[in-house]
Amino acid sequence: EVQLVESGGGLVQPGGSLRVSCTASGYAFSSHAMGWVRQAPGKGLEWVSNIDSDGTTYYRDSVKGRFTISRDNAKNTVFLQMNSLKLEDTAVYYCSAVKSWGQGTQVTVSS
Q1: Please, which residues have CB within 8 angstroms of residue 51's CB and are 6 or more apart in sequence?
Q2: Secondary structure class of 87 (helix, strand, coil)
Q3: Alpha-carbon separation of residue 14 from 6, 8, 37, 69, 92 (angstroms)
Q4: pLDDT tens, N- to C-terminus, the chain (111 residues)
């Protein structure tokens, strides 16, 4: 059974930083791409970033230069480092892989 468990969300002021993590189990982690999506209050799901099994990364335009996705295959974990956070980054962040989703972690950017 595939399991994805996010952690690391919280409350941060605009301009601040936060790192969210997702630990996976139940499949060959290193062989698959991982991704992050988010859902802001009252809005639909929005793709944020992906990292391929070879480490190639992709970002939506609004987070380029501020967010960094990375993975640690030894720990079956993917990270999303978020810097220069903005109010509009407030959302529940979900990791995804092999057509599965985690439960999400809340990131709130507020002064």
Answers
A1: 33, 34, 35, 57, 58, 69, 70, 71, 78
A2: helix
A3: 22, 17, 20, 20, 17
A4: 999 999 999 999 999 999 999 999 988 898 999 999 999 999 999 999 999 999 999 999 999 999 999 999 999 999 999 999 999 999 999 999 989 999 999 999 999
User: Residue 18 burial by CB count (10 A; 0-12/13-18/19+): exposed, middle or buried?
Assistant: buried
Q: Please give the Cα distance from 55 to 67 (Å, whole number).
A: 15
What is the helix (H) or strand (E) element at residue 68, kind and residue range? strand 67-72
Closest CA to 80 of 2, 1, 9, 4: 9
Q: Which two tokens stand for residue 39?
A: 């859902």
Q: Dig out the tokens for 103 from the structure.
A: 């439960």
d(CA 87, CA 46): 15
